[in-house]
């Protein structure tokens, strides 16, 4: 198997891991924060769990697998039960993308730990000079892709359009008049969201604002936090 094919397989494996482990974490984070604000709706519906069966959305899961951007089933919340209406909605929404960024940092730390070890350096040299694929090398490449997938999810979910988290984060700064306008035009906004998804799927990555934002955050935030200069990475 050539290098590009092997790395592509690991990329799709990282998306599967994200779908079955990180997306449930994302939704569970929403449910936990909602409960913290006084709304136990999600808890009563069994959403405070890391069981992927409770969270996976078929369409969002397929998009996650084939594009690296996707979603799970939205966590049900009742803002009227929250202690602070607008803050509760916004912080609950923000919890999901934050969980993705924390997952990206965890993967980056794991990558750095292995990359700086003698066994990690030997695994990389074996791969490039002997075409030898070791479990350590595979683990590092997988961590690399997990960093990118999770940051991509955070960026995607912060788009300020329903049903994404960014819309509810935005609502902290808006008024009741905006809420009424939204509910009056909900169908048109949903059509706009669908059109956005189709448009983004056809834009080459070098022109796609989601990919550009993802790469900027990965290179200038995530790798820098764990002490890695992205210019020195042996994989891109």
Q: What would your notes on this structure say?
A:
It contains 10 helices and no strands. The chain has helices at 3-36, 41-44, 58-67, 85-115, 118-130, 135-157, 165-170, 176-184, 186-202, 209-225. α1 packs antiparallel against α4 (85-115) and α4 (85-115) runs antiparallel to α6.
Counting structural domains, the number is 1
Amino-to-carboxy terminus distance = 19 Å
Q: Major sheet, described briefly?
A: none
Strand content: under 5%
Please summarize what this structure is.
With 236 residues, the chain is mostly helical. Helices cover 69% and strands 0% of the residues.
Keywords:
0% strand, 236 residues, mainly alpha, 10 helices
Write the layout of secondary structure elements.
Layout: H1 3-36, H2 41-44, H3 58-67, H4 85-115, H5 118-130, H6 135-157, H7 165-170, H8 176-184, H9 186-202, H10 209-225
Helix pairs in contact: 1-3, 1-4, 1-6, 4-6, 5-6, 6-10
